[in-house]
Amino acid sequence: MPQPTVSIETLQKNLLSDRYFRERRHPQWTDNYCLYRDTVIVNRLTQRQSVNVPLMKETIKTMLSRVDEPIDLAFEELDNDGAKELYLNALWDDVADKNHLELLDIVDKKQVFLYGRSFWKLNILDGEFKLEVIDPQDVLVDRYVNPWDLESANHITHVGIYRTLAQISMNPMYDGAAVTRLKTFFATQQGLVKAGENSLIVADRNQRMQDMGVPDVENPIVGETYVELNETQIKVWHPDEMKLVVHVVVTANGTEILMDKPLRDILGVNFFTWTTWADDIERTDFWSDGIADIVRVPNQILNVYFSQLIENGVLRGYGMHFYDATAKEGWSPIGYTPTPFGFYPFPGDPNKVLKQVDIPKLESHMEEMQMMRTMVGTATAATPTEAGGVQPDVKTLGALELMTQKAEERIKDLPKYARINSNEMGDKFAKIVTSPMAAKLLRPVTLHKKGASGTYYEKTIKPSALASKKGYKCKATQKSQQESDSLKEIQKLKIGAAQFPMNIPLQEILGDRVLSWLELTPEEKKRVQDFQEQNPQSMLPQMPGAPGQGNPPAPGPSPAPVAQPQPAFAQ
User: In principle, which of 57, 282, 347, 470 could form an S-S bond with 79, CB 3.0–4.6 Å?
Assistant: First the structure.
């Protein structure tokens, strides 16, 4: 039975529908980005001066400083195979390091703050696992998607992928006949025109770069013919299997299908290799608001006020005058351009021959600007205190701590949403790298891990060694949250140990938790435990006057432990 395929007409209709669903957000995204990049559009009515109050950047930077800790992923092998678990965790550490995950995490959160949503794309390229943060204006999503479940979408499209004709010709996965037709088209006059233009899908994204001063974003001068590709992951019904199968369909120029293959034939999985998250999830709208949408209008108002203040000060310093122009025949009212020490005719006698142009000082603007900043800080939890400024109303340290605590409570949901997304990304990573196809695509990786003795051990991991019958479970945590949870657990155990001071098992459990929290090396932990075994009474509280509880004998020198080198990787 022939394999089901997707028609170019279906892809074109989906592309148009998804673009209409998203493009209502484009003007807002452009304004958010320009304000963040300290770029404003001057106009003759309100924004006469090219000035920008950096409220957008201040707010975004403040929020990033509170949630800049990356998520840690740990994998557990469900069949209790410690070696495979160790290998997969070591491989993830290597992938995170090579893909600069800590930097990508900042870019990811910044996109959520600016646009309301960010996307991650997972892939295997050139024998290595790749992670990439994608611009929201390069992603089109099925308009009927469940906003908190990307897998509920029928299709996801990555647009704005540019490749040269030579690169397309060398890809063995693309259809040779389609590539030939593409070459023929770009050799015509119509094709040459198309090669120098961008499609409507990326026009709004290009507008941002035009506003930032890139002059040739629409028609870049390049030495080769670039073709725009769109990559769609779409669910296709396979009647012989009675289930939906995710296909990867690559189109060129919007007219040629270069590839249409099931994703399981490429990466060995049957789910979207995308993850996404937002910090203001809604039930009905996938393209939800971000923090920048709260700041945008107040920032624009502040710019108007600030521009007027500067304009007002400039005009007041010009020293302009009206003068009596009745002696001149044929005078008529005309507009005038403010110039330093300018003189402007006026019909009649403004204060007998000469009168200085009176320009009132804008007294109220400073109060209004402060009100707008306070409103934004209240709405986003990026208060002056959080931004490193001074809050004049705060008089005591207790009040300052209370304000900080309230801000912490308001932004604590942000890491939670990021952690949920990271957990999904970790699950998909584990399934991709342990699939049968990954064993063919991934190159063996040589990893180095430091053992307990301080010696580095080398291990070459083959992808086939990661295969697991039951799979892996991913756990996403943050180091600060782990430490906070550990401290809470230790505090609870201390309360129990104080209630039952003579309960040796409880005291031992408390000691184990404290040693784990201290993150001692195995040698240091063994020294502490050896001392406790030789001096068990040191664990119990000394009660004065209790029978048999005299002063304990002075401990003798502890025997030096013999360091046994432990291999970093299971053999």
Answer: 470
